[in-house]
Known about the structure:
Oligomer: single chain
Strand order of the largest sheet: 3-2-1-4-5-6
Strand content: 15-25%
Helix content: 25-40%
Structural class: alpha/beta
Amino acid sequence: MTSFWNTRFQDENYIYGTEPNAFLSESQKKLQLSGDALAIAEGEGRNAVFLAEQGMNVTAWDYAESGLRKTEKLAASRDVTVKTELVDLNEASWTKDRWDETLSKRVAPKNASGSERSDEAGGIFCCGGLFHSPNSV
C-alpha cells in the first residue's frame, strides 16, 4: 500500500486539490479549532495547511514520502509551517494528552487505535464526518 500512495503523490499536480476538505472548512467556522493539531494519513497536506493558516501548530503524519514533500511545498507556498513526519499508523506511538485536536480523513479505526487518548482533555478528534469529544458537537 505504501508504494501505491508514494507513486500516486509523485505527480506534481495535487490529486485532491489544494483547498481543504469542505467538511473541515465548514466545521472550522463553527468550532474555531486552535492549539496543537495532528493530521493523520494527511496525504498531500491540503487540510494540514488549512489548519496552519488558521493559526494552529500542525504536525502531519503520512507514510508516503512524496505526499509529505507536497505538504511541505504547499505550506511554503502559503507561508505557513507544517511539521511532517513519516509514520506508519500500524506502528504509531500515541502519546497521551499530546494534541489539542486530531484530524483524519479516511483512516480505519483499527489503524488509529490509541488516537483517542492522544487528545488533551476537551480536545476534538475529527474523522471524515465523525466528531468525538467529551462535549459532543
